[in-house]
User: Which sequence fits this backbone?
């Protein structure tokens, strides 16, 4: 293998909770109203320092989507997914966007999901992995 190329971000950064590799800046959050197996998840316009897995069809609360899981380039941890295609017309805005699961990343203040003030909500008004 070669040397790993990692992009460093500035500002309010979301990063890997295991290795602190930068993923995204808070300004690129589209929505904080998504949910996954572990609680809250955020929809981002852009994410860096991730690799993608294989495409798969996944049924979510909002319908069928084609997604790829995303992994940290630093440690290989799965941190969320990318929407490749939405089958429902009203879900097309998600295409090309990324979900980072709050449980798997550190927030801009260095807090993790369990140590933060965000309450775990049962149920979901958005997507579920």
Assistant:
């Amino acid at each position: 293998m070669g040397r790993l190329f990692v992009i460093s971000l500035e500002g309010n950064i979301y990063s890997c909770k295991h290795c602190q590799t930068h993923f995204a800046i808070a300004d690129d959050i589209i929505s904080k109203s998504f949910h996954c197996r572990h609680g809250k998840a955020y929809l981002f316009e852009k994410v860096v320092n991730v690799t993608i897995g294989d495409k798969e069809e996944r049924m979510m609360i909002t319908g069928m989507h084609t997604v790829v899981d995303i992994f940290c380039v630093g440690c290989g941890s799965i941190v969320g997914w990318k929407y490749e295609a939405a089958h429902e017309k009203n879900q097309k805005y998600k295409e090309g966007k990324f979900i980072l699961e709050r449980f798997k990343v550190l927030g801009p203040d260095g807090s993790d999901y369990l140590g933060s003030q965000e309450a775990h909500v049962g149920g979901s008004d958005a997507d579920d992995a």
Notes: The domain at 13-106 is CATH 2.170.150.20 (Metal Binding Protein, Guanine Nucleotide Exchange Factor; Chain A). The radius of gyration is 14 Å. The chain has one domain: 13-106. The chain has no helices and nine strands.
